[in-house]
Amino acid sequence: MEQEPLIENDITLWNNFQRSEGKFYWERREFLIGCKNKTQIIKKALNIAGDRGTALRLLLYLNVEERLSFFDELVDSASTAHSDIDLVREVLLSLPKEFLLANIEKSADPILNAVDPYYQYEEYRRLLELYIEIDPELTRRLATKALQSDIEDIHEAGQDFLELLDNC
User: Fold this and answer.
1) pTM for this one?
2) Other CB atoms closer than 10 Å to residue 51's CB: what's the count?
3) What parts of the chain have a pLDDT lower than 50?
4) Category of 38 on φ-ψ map: left (φ > 0), alpha (ψ -120 to 50) or beta
């Protein structure tokens, strides 16, 4: 089968894209190697919606010990819906499972207790979505806690996840 000849504009677009990608990798490397206040800059970026995705993708290039220093911020970010929630979960799930199991409930409890009970539904639902990717027993504990709530939406979230666990 004969291929169409390449259009000059397409070749130019490809070359521009390829150069930009190379520059991106170079700049990321320069930041990771040369930045003296990485943690401070990334923590600030995590709180700016337009910068959060870049900061989260960058976290995946840090070593585990460095990523652990962002743990509480990541759990907090995982408790509410936003456009980068899948990326937040990816970073959290890149941490050692033993660490997650030992620490996530301690980090999540203040989040669940800080919000007015009538507005906790989202936090319960988002954390249950994260927990189920970590461990069934962890999920069961939070779902059981949700079942004890007088708030119908929180109770329902607990029910949903217990049913999900029972059907796995």
Assistant:
1) 0.89
2) 14
3) none
4) alpha
The predicted structure's pLDDT at residue 39: 95
Helix, strand, coil abundance in the chain, percent, nearest 5:
80, 0, 20
pLDDT at 5: 78
Sequence-distant (≥ 6) Cβ neighbours of residue 49 within 8 angstroms? 82, 83
**Which amino acid belongs to residue 60?**
L
Are 121 and 150 in contact by the 8 Å Cβ rule? The answer is: no
Q: What is the pLDDT of residue 119?
A: 78
Backbone angles phi, psi at 33, to 5 degrees: -85, -40
CB-based contacts of 131, cutoff 8 Å, min separation 6: 104, 138, 139, 142
From CA 73, how far away is CA 104, in angstroms rounded?
11
User: 46-73, pLDDT tens digit by residue?
Assistant: 999 999 999 999 999 999 999 999 999 9
